[in-house]
């Protein structure tokens, strides 16, 4: 296991914890959900053989602290955090970016706000539900989650949220949640500790986000939208696939479901490398790094 270099970065309203390992073109990994830098432990070491891999805890999660713990959370601010990481670790050079779930939403905004800093974005199941024809239904879901959190508490709100993400007519729990690798299981306490912040701040702030589709159309050659092989029909997959269709780009499938990064880390990492290699982004970023 590679021992990462650990640092902290002061940004607007927060201090970010980050970790860097490896050599080569910068690959910034943006976590989603309640995952922080540790959610990439299963793939970071292998990727570090070819890249400088940077991971971090998003503001308010794990070791990244907020100046105001009650502050509302906005996609643009989280994307600016990612931009500040790029400026710190790869000043002036376009980088490779992977974002998962809510982290993929931040990655989409990063691409539209700072395209000159991004060689390629791989966005795995960003739940950009505002692009869907039935977006109004999902606005109701978000309101229901917030109201349930206020009146009944965390776990009932999580139940409402999870039910809204499942395939239509599917009353079972997602298969990806049944068994976790040891590293993921060890993060369970941290995950539970961050849930109130995630449900109360991240879910409403991110799932109400509408990406600039017209802007993304002009940048689609730098964007790879992806979903899990086991996810078709689930809300984040539907949103990502619909966006790919609107942009006229190929939709990639990763092993596992929405949390394939956690349940199938080796296969997930290998598929990511294949996408970057086949797209030519890896070579382009490497050439710029060598200049």
TrEMBL record:
It comes from the Bacteria. Gene3D superfamilies: alpha/beta hydrolase. Residues 25-136 form the AB hydrolase-1 domain. Keywords: Hydrolase. The keyword Metal-binding does not apply. The keyword Hydrolase applies. One of its GO terms (molecular function) is hydrolase activity. This is Alpha/beta hydrolase. It comes from Streptomyces lavendulocolor.
């Amino acid at each position: 296991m590679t021992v990462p270099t650990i640092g902290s970065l002061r940004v607007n309203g927060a201090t970010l914890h980050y970790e860097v390992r490896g050599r080569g073109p910068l690959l910034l990994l943006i976590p989603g959900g309640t995952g922080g830098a540790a959610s990439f432990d299963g793939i970071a070491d292998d990727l570090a053989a070819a890249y400088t891999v940077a991971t971090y805890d998003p503001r308010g999660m794990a070791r990244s602290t907020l100046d105001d713990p009650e502050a509302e959370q906005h996609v643009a601010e989280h994307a600016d955090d990612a931009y500040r990481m790029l400026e710190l670790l790869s000043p002036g050079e376009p980088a490779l970016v992977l974002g998962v779930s809510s982290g993929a939403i931040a990655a989409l905004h990063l691409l539209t706000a700072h395209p000159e800093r991004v060689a390629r974005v791989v966005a795995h199941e960003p739940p950009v539900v505002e692009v869907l024809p039935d977006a109004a239904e999902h606005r109701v879901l978000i309101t229901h989650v917030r109201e349930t959190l206020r009146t009944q508490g965390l776990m009932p709100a999580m139940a409402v949220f999870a039910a809204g993400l499942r395939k239509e007519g599917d009353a079972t729990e997602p298969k990806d949640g049944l068994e976790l690798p040891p590293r993921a299981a060890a993060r369970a306490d941290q995950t539970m500790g961050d849930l109130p912040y995630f449900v109360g701040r991240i879910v409403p702030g991110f799932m109400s986000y509408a990406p600039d589709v017209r802007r993304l159309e002009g940048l689609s050659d730098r964007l790879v939208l992806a979903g899990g092989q086991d996810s078709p029909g689930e809300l984040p997959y539907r949103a990502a696939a619909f966006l790919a269709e609107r942009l006229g780009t190929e939709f990639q499938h990763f092993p596992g479901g929405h949390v394939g990064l956690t349940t199938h880390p080796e296969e997930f990492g290998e598929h990511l490398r294949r996408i970057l290699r086949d797209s030519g982004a890896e070579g382009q970023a490497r050439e710029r790094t060598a200049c």
